[in-house]
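Support request from a user on the community tier.

User writes: "When I paste my structure tokens into the form, the page sometimes reloads and wipes my input. The last time it worked, I copied everything first. Here is what I submitted, just in case something in the input itself triggers the reload:"
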């Protein structure tokens, strides 16, 4: 057991300061879990968070996270009419980054951090990162071969590894082409590269954790 009483944390990421950040869905917020607990976002531009789901920390010290309009734990507040991708700037200010992804779930950044990828049901969307952290130029990047996109990670060559439930881990090339599927005994929900050389892909889903030795290498200097 590493941590307890985490307010139903879903997505996790380490930021450049070495802090473990979690998106939490019981009381909707984004918080530092270690080394010292601290809440860093409970609302965005005066609007309440609803159901923070996944996140990725950039090398500048900012944090992107998805906030879909889920209603598993409470009714969606009337003030919230759009799902959001939110950015916590390095100075701590919380701003809307995009309202264009219809079903935001998993999220990650390209190796050069110029493009943000977001799960959107049966597809992966892409948006260009602007200097102020907002996102522009929304487009559909890839379509899955079955299943819905959940959490994902990326390798050093820009290939995405997308958890897609019973459809396994689908691998999407840097140009949006479907390269293949890594089957898992139980449904795949999230993926992450780890290990000393970042050549081990970890997959979680269905109450299990799998590790897969890879030729591909995760992005060095970033947790996801």
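"...and here is what came back when it finally went through:"
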């Amino acid at each position: 057991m590493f941590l307890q009483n985490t307010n139903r944390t879903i997505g996790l990421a380490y930021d450049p300061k070495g802090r473990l950040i979690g998106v939490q869905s019981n009381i909707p917020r984004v918080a530092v879990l270690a080394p010292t607990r601290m809440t860093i976002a409970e609302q965005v531009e005066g609007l309440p968070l609803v159901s923070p789901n996944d996140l990725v920390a950039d090398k500048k010290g900012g944090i992107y996270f998805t906030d879909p309009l889920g209603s598993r734990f409470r009714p969606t507040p009337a003030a919230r009419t759009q799902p959001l991708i939110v950015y916590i700037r390095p100075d701590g200010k919380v701003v809307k980054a995009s309202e264009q992804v219809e079903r935001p779930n998993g999220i990650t950044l390209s190796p050069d951090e110029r493009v943000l990828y977001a799960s959107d049901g049966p597809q992966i969307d892409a948006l260009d990162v602007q200097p102020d952290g907002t996102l522009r130029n929304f487009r559909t990047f890839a379509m899955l071969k079955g299943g819905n996109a959940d959490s994902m990670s990326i390798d050093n060559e820009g290939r995405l590894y997308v958890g897609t439930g019973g459809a396994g881990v689908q691998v999407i090339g840097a140009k949006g082409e479907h390269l293949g599927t890594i089957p898992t005994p139980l449904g795949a929900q999230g993926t992450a590269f780890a290990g000393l050389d970042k050549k081990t892909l970890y997959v979680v889903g269905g109450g299990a954790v799998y590790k897969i030795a890879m030729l591909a290498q995760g992005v060095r200097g970033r947790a996801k």
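Agent notes: The reload is a front-end session timeout and is unrelated to the input. The chain has no helices and 21 strands. The longest strand covers residues 135-143. Escalated to web team.
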